[in-house]
Design brief:
The chain is of the alpha/beta class and 496 residues long. It is built from 16 helices and twelve strands. The chain has a six-stranded mixed beta sheet with strand order 3-4-2-1-5-6, sandwiched between helices. Strand 7 and strand 8 form a beta hairpin. Helix 2 runs antiparallel to helix 3 and helix 3 runs antiparallel to helix 4. The radius of gyration is 28 Å and the shape is globular.
């Protein structure tokens, strides 16, 4: 280890007592809003207590003493709450920006604090606990989660322009480094920005991947590269070229600089709940649970689909009627477009949509394909200015209103609210073997690909997102995707 790498000025990583500058800045912002929200919650509890006890004490001296004691407890609660949020790592740079762990820690720490508070109030016979439990906790819990969500939107926007992200040095084989570099560069919201790479026999001046990550040297040059460049973490993308001892020594060399060591497994597109790390004989073995396609979870999903679709048809019936009239009066042809799609188990079914094209659209398809005006991808035919689309159809497509009749597909059990896109039978002829796994679940009105770019996505990205959903679906994720769908539809991006 060189003297420069051990210098305290290089302690800028994501671990220990030296978080990156962006992480410290973001943590200060969270601390400020946490303090404000908890203060509002505590004051709300104070006012509730005063309102509940205003007429119960006639002795002004006793009232004053009790009110003073209550205020002291409120101040102590405010300080304890902030301390618990810090102790639980709710502002840890490893969990901010993605996933539900940040929200989970906020709620768990708050719940634990109020459990202790309630027990102390009962043991000491303090007439303080009820008003706080009924007011301060709900106000703070909702406020803290909403503020963290708001800050997360801001953080994601910053990361998309290259700010507030951990600078990563990728170490491993050329193929694995390129794969991870392209994956991380394509998802800046993850918070890791590849800035350098060390490859077997790597030479300075070259670059790798679509993101053109500069190659800083070979695998034996990692320490010297860290001495010359400031990075927040080192990601080992493959262990074939690095022995277990070499990886351990790399971790030891990073301790003095405070730089985080991350080891990327070969597993990709596996959600966290399916993975469990278990140390066995000193080895961190990753256990991967099999995806669930039947049983209680599937029944719950079906029940939610049917009930939600039924309610949606009931409440949206005026909208459905208005769209039907608009289609019927502005162009000739049927109101509902019926098309054969491939669904659960590879079985075909009839999918319903409001007609958004002229009646001769299918006849013109071959001609348009020959003109190579494809703006989508190699398998799905998509055009940003398709001449077959009617004036009303363009509006319906932009906001996905043409998809509303698929609610009846959900009611008859051929589709789900959330799932992979239902393909045409002709499209399946171009499938590779692993693509057919999308038929293990019902196709959906919306899904990951719809909220991640819609028609702007390449064929490979569309398949990857659909397969990720199939492998990792859950009822909670379905609810999240429905919320993201509403935002994507209102924005109208990638719809044509």
């Amino acid at each position: 280890m060189t003297t420069a790498s051990a210098d305290s000025t290089l302690r800028h990583g994501l671990v220990g007592d030296a978080p990156a500058p962006w992480a410290r800045n973001y943590a200060r912002r969270l601390t400020l809003t946490d303090t404000l929200i908890i203060l509002i919650a505590v004051v709300t509890g104070e006012l509730t207590w005063y309102a509940m006890n205003e007429g119960s004490l006639s002795d002004r001296l006793a009232w004053g003493e009790l009110a003073t004691r209550h205020t002291v407890v409120s101040v102590l609660l405010l300080g304890a709450w902030l301390l618990v949020l810090t102790a639980y790592g709710t502002r840890d740079s490893r969990i901010i920006g993605q996933g539900t762990l940040e929200y989970k820690r906020v709620l768990e720490s708050s719940l634990m604090l109020f459990g202790v508070f309630a027990i102390v109030a009962v043991v000491l016979r303090l007439d303080l606990g009820r008003s706080f439990v009924l007011t301060a906790f709900p106000v703070a819990a909702v406020g803290l989660v909403m503020s963290r969500w708001g800050w997360r939107q801001w953080l994601v926007a910053q990361r998309r322009v290259g700010q507030y992200s951990a600078k990563a040095l990728l170490v491993g084989s050329r193929h694995s480094v390129e794969h991870l570099a392209d994956h991380l560069s394509g998802q800046p919201s993850a918070g890791y920005r590849p800035v350098l790479a060390c490859l077997p026999h790597g030479t300075q001046g070259s670059s790798i991947g679509k993101a053109s990550v500069p190659v800083a040297g070979g695998l034996n040059d990692v320490t010297s590269v860290l001495a010359r460049h400031r990075v927040d973490c080192v990601i080992v993308t493959s262990s074939d070229e690095l022995s277990p001892l070499a990886v351990r020594q790399l971790g030891w060399s990073l301790e003095e600089s405070g730089t985080q060591l991350i080891v990327a497994p070969a597993l990709t597109d596996i959600a966290g709940p399916r993975m469990h790390t278990r140390p066995v004989a000193g080895l961190p073995l990753i256990h991967v649970e099999s995806p669930v396609f039947a049983g209680r979870k599937a029944w719950t999903k079906t029940a939610i689909d049917r009930i939600t679709a039924g309610l949606a048809v009931l409440f949206l019936s005026p909208v459905l009627l208005a769209i039907a009239l608009a289609v019927a009066t502005t162009s000739s042809g049927p109101i509902i477009f019926r098309q054969q799609r491939v669904g659960l188990g590879g079985e075909t079914f009839t999918m319903f949509k409001f007609r958004s094209m002229r009646t001769d659209a299918e006849a013109q398809l071959a001609k348009l394909q020959q003109e190579q005006q494809d703006a989508g991808n190699q398998v799905l035919f998509k055009m940003k200015e398709d001449p077959r689309i009617t004036r009303v159809g363009g509006f319906l497509r932009r906001y996905s209103l043409d998809e509303l009749p698929q609610l009846f597909n959900v009611l008859n059990g051929t589709m789900s609210l959330v799932g992979p896109r239902p393909p045409l039978d002709a499209e399946t002829k171009a499938y590779e073997k692993h693509n057919f796994r999308r038929f293990l679940v019902r196709p959906g009105i919306t899904g990951l690909w719809q909220v991640s770019g819609r028609s702007d996505l390449s064929w490979e990205d569309s398949v990857r997102l659909d397969l990720y959903y199939v492998e990792n679906w859950s009822v909670l994720n379905d609810l999240i995707l429905l919320g993201r769908t509403a935002r994507a539809v209102l924005g109208g991006h990638g719809a044509y």
